[in-house]
Specification:
The protein is an alpha+beta fold. The chain has one domain: Glutaredoxin (3-Layer(aba) Sandwich). It has three helices and four strands, in the order E-H-E-H-E-E-H. It has a four-stranded mixed beta sheet with strand order 2-1-3-4. The longest helix has 14 residues.
Amino acid sequence: MPTGGAPANAGSIEGRASDNWGVRRLTLYGKPGCHLCDDARAAVARVRAERPFELDEVDVSLDPALHRRFGERIPVLELEGEVLFEYHVDERALVERLDRVDGT
């Protein structure tokens, strides 16, 4: 998991793609050493292979406010600020949600 609140893909060409209309931004809140976070990251990667979206990974252990907000509820996956999943990412539900948002 990247350190700090910086996007995992900050500075990359891919990281700038969210300026294009229609590209969604998901945020995965977690921390290093969290096996559930690793599982969620893998699930998100599999979905990302099928559906385009930007992904920010945030280490909540580095930010006291985020640590208070999420506590032990991690991992948490948000779509543009809306919490979609806690603890476990349902890949099929994520694909359906992305399709509904994108209108595809």
